[in-house]
């Protein structure tokens, strides 16, 4: 678990940034199509990674590729930095990864298959996509953003340039883990932490107002109300917070 450096004025729990990764690929692709940009794709030989689709969107990008023979997994890199494996998803005939928290501009994504326990760069493929910026002129950024210096405003889990806040906690949640995922939450003024289990309980613990750690919840795939324990009387996940 990452710990955050305390920064002046901050929303404690009211602002939970969510990067939602859709379970249905057709709907996910169509949602991105309206804001996508052309991608320059370079592939290796026929038994290597073959990229089938790639594009950039608002502070994110995605790429899809065909299965490589004998590959037991894949490492995905953005500008040379490996991204979390939870961002890689397998479907019947192909794989897809969504890279989030990217700045506007060009980014190079590289997919390296893992064969016999070793990343095989000779069978890798890479591509370059153009990423757009999000409009942050609304009140959530303007009125509640925290000035952390040099004209950079930190709002919740992300900075104004689209990247993660410094030392932000990133919580990945699926339909299978939404009630079992755990997180240590600061629960009193002395800094004591309590381990909460389940997304609803984690949010309940953070609404006590002592934990100012930026929290990003990334929901992977489809999670329905029936999957979640601890919804409020109206059938919603409840997020409360304190503004300082």
Describe the structure.
This protein has 244 residues and is mainly beta. It is built from 3 helices and 18 strands.
Run of helices and strands: EHEEEEEEEEEEHEEEEEEHE
**End-to-end CA span:** 24 Å
**What is the CA-based Rg, rounded?**
19 Å
Number of strands: 18
Low-confidence stretches: 1-45
Number of helical regions = 3
Give the CA-based shape. globular
Protein structure class: mainly beta
Mean pLDDT: 77
Task: Give a short account of the largest sheet.
Answer: 6 strands, antiparallel
Kindly estimate the percentage of residues that lie in beta strands according to DSSP.
35-45%
Helix fraction, binned, reads under 10%
Describe the structure in brief:
By secondary structure, this protein is mainly beta. 9% of the residues lie in helices and 36% in strands.
Write the layout of secondary structure elements.
Blueprint (H helix, E strand, L loop, with lengths): L16 E5 L3 H9 L5 E4 L8 E7 L2 E7 L6 E6 L2 E2 L5 E3 L3 E7 L4 E11 L2 E2 L5 E7 L7 H4 L3 E2 L5 E3 L2 E2 L9 E5 L8 E5 L6 E5 L1 H8 L8 E6 L24
Parallel strand pairs: 1-18, 15-18
Antiparallel strand pairs: 2-11, 3-4, 4-8, 5-6, 5-9, 7-8, 9-10, 9-11, 12-13, 13-14, 16-17
Which structural traits does this protein have?
244 residues; mainly beta; four-stranded antiparallel beta sheet; 3 helices; 18 strands; 9% helix; disordered N terminus
């Amino acid at each position: 678990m990452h710990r955050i450096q305390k920064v002046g004025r901050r929303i404690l729990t009211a602002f939970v940034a969510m990067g939602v990764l859709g379970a249905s690929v057709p709907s996910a692709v169509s949602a991105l199509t309206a804001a996508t940009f052309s991608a320059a794709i370079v592939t290796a030989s026929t038994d290597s990674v073959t990229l089938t689709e790639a594009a950039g969107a608002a502070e994110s990008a995605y790429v899809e590729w065909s299965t490589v023979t004998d590959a037991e997994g894949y490492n995905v890199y953005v500008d040379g930095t490996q991204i979390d494996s939870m961002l890689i998803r397998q479907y019947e005939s192909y794989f897809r990864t969504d890279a989030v928290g990217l700045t506007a501009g060009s980014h190079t994504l590289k997919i390296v298959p893992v064969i016999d326990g070793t990343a095989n760069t000779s069978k890798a493929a890479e591509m370059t996509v153009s990423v757009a910026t999000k409009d942050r002129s609304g009140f959530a950024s303007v009125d509640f953003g925290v000035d952390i210096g040099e004209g950079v405003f930190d709002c919740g889990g992300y900075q104004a340039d689209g990247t993660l806040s410094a030392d932000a906690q990133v919580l990945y949640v699926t339909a299978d883990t939404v009630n079992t995922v755990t997180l240590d939450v600061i629960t009193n003024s002395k800094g004591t932490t309590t381990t909460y289990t389940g997304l609803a309980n984690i949010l309940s613990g953070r609404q006590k107002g002592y934990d100012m750690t930026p929290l990003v919840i990334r929901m992977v795939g489809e999670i329905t109300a029936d999957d979640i324990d601890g919804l409020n009387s109206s059938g919603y996940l409840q997020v409360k917070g304190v503004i300082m």
